[in-house]
Amino acid sequence: MQRTLNQFILFSNSAPGNESYEWTSSFKELSETGVKPVIGIMYSPMDKLSIGVAVSKVVVLSSDLAQQQTKRLEGITVPFDVNGDGIIVSGETTTSLFCSPTDPFCGYFTTKEKKRYPIQTTVGIAYFPTADLLLSADFTYFTKVDDSAFGDREAVLNAAFGAEYYMSRSWALRAGLFTNMANTPEIKAGTAAVADEHTDLYGGSLSISNFTRNTSVTLGGNMSYGTGTSQITTDATKTQDMTIFGWAIFLSSSYSY
To answer: pTM of the prediction?
Structure first.
């Protein structure tokens, strides 16, 4: 995985010739090798009802992370280790800083420390009210993860509900609702320099499929929306309201012989 991010924030108190801004440039490259064992069981207490349970966990066998970040601050008062003793005390601040790999706010580092992943438990239910209609639901629980290197993650529960209706032997309509809850810790101003965003998402999907003897074609889309909190500046005393809206359109096909 590779990610390159350039972020420029111009603050509202800026004036021509006296700008206040924060400019961050970062590069991250992560390579992981691992396994994901899955244990599951399915049970049908009656002809029209099926229940399944699956437990899985990603286990990282090897990891290689390289990251570099450069930051430029101007016109912003932030804590800064002025005397270089590793301790920031009251009064040690700066309003202008260019961040090089030796500065405390950024740098270049590599690590082979392995990321920790949660245990994932999913319970799924499928019910056939009629021969043409299928109703389904699944609930997935992710355990809490304590990971000082890559960031702690909270326990979350996600849910999804779906329906599939065959209008004829050749056409099927599918619809669903889902949640995508944030597993990042809730952001509290003053507790971190830059915290990961915390936004819960809710969404839905709709698609239609056409079937022939050997092929199927599906056209559909999904949308998700959520509000939450972010912390995108070096100033740990402030947080920002965040809104996410995403959508996608997909087209897929399959052929069997």
So the answer is: 0.80
